[in-house]
Design brief:
The protein has a domain of 102 residues: Nucleic acid-binding proteins (OB fold (Dihydrolipoamide Acetyltransferase, E2P)). It is of the alpha+beta class and 336 residues long. The chain is built from nine helices and seven strands, in the order ααββααααααβββββα. The strands form two sheets. The protein has a five-stranded mixed sheet with strand order 3-6-5-4-7, with helices on one face. Strands 1-2 form a two-stranded antiparallel ribbon. Helix 4 packs across helix 6.
Length: 336
């Protein structure tokens, strides 16, 4: 990791003088969150966003991480002179499974091809929701496979997709998507399976799914689970599910699958009654209908409906240990 990391550690050199991952994550969070708020309020990069291409992607990274890294906005194939007089570059970056991301010398051509793709696709504008879901999911996989930055790829990619969606009339809410789910979708994308990432986009676009996910996430938080470390998703058309019902109300249920994934289902989609702690197997039929545009549930609505949805006391989810999260933050697979 040539000159990108603090000597003797795997922690990227940073402006916050953090020498361990936990400290860096804790210190950087408020800075990055403040920069995200600036984007959401339209206080930054408005003119630059008119053409959301690879140049804008780099500008987003620089904006988000300008308080944290000297090299913010530079892709890992570039050479950056740091204040400690070292030259940083990282053309080789491996995934958790040991495979490499795109080699650095291929990043410029890959970004140029991305620009051509975006231009040819009209930046995903004027598309019905179902077409946007497919193209946006594939686009997110494509950018993640390039993995242009040494650190912060996930947050930059999501901010980029949110800009694409906003301009296309499709508001995305990635706050409803857990980090573990992004890791799983990213790994699938590296193996040429874009289905999981398309389903991420579908959940982040649909207001009802957003509400259901946030209610369950609040429920898990109240039970002292770190929902960001768990795979949490709504039941998707065409997929089969099997596990134990962990919670249920008049309209929804929470299924803990045998592989520990948490699935939010709708009672109307399942034959027969659904009761807590029962074994349940079901499959939703494929759906080709257009999904509605997304809206965001307010925090007060989420908190109120979570209590209404699952009641008190909460059902026991601790019959088996929850899996440990493989990855910090929500940036997708990345080895520091």
């Amino acid at each position: 990791m040539p000159n990108y990391t603090v000597p003797g550690t795997k922690v990227p050199k940073n402006k916050l003088c953090a020498a361990d991952p936990e400290t860096l994550e804790r210190l950087e969070a408020p800075f990055v969150e403040a920069r995200i708020v600036e984007l959401d309020l339209g206080l930054a990069l408005q003119e630059e966003a008119a053409i959301p291409d690879s140049r804008y992607l780099k500008l987003l990274h620089r904006h988000l991480f300008q308080d944290v890294y000297e090299w913010a906005g530079h892709s890992r194939d570039e050479t950056v002179r740091l204040s400690d007089r070292t030259i940083a570059t990282e053309p080789s970056l491996r995934k958790p499974d040991g495979k490499f991301f795109l080699p650095g010398d291929m990043i410029p051509d890959a970004l140029a091809a991305l620009d051509e793709h975006l231009k040819a696709s009209g930046y995903l504008r004027n598309l019905p929701a179902d077409d946007f879901i497919k193209k946006a999911g594939d686009l997110l996989v494509r950018i993640n496979n390039i993995h242009p930055f040494r650190e912060g790829n996930g947050r930059t990619q999501r901010a980029f997709l949110e800009t694409i969606g906003r301009q296309a009339g499709h508001e995305l809410d990635f706050e409803s998507i857990s980090g573990e789910r992004m890791v799983v979708a990213s790994i699938a994308g590296h193996n040429a399976d874009t289905g999981p990432m398309r389903r991420v986009i579908a959940d982040a676009l649909d207001p009802d799914r957003i509400r259901e996910l946030k209610e369950v996430q609040n429920f898990l938080t109240n039970q002292n689970f770190q929902w960001m470390d768990l795979y949490v998703a709504t039941a998707a058309p065409g997929l089969s599910y099997q596990g134990q019902v962990a919670a249920v109300n008049k309209t929804n249920f929470v299924l803990r699958e045998d592989d520990n994934r948490i699935i939010v289902g709708r009672i109307a989609d399942v034959e027969g009654p659904v009761v807590g702690k029962q074994r349940l197997a079901f499959k939703l039929p494929p759906a080709e209908s257009e999904l509605p545009f997304a809206g965001k549930a307010s925090p007060d609505e989420v908190l109120a409906r979570a209590k209404e949805m699952f009641g008190d006391p909460a059902p026991d989810l601790r019959s088996r240990p929850m899996p440990k999260r493989r990855q910090k933050k929500n940036d997708g697979p990345e080895i520091e």
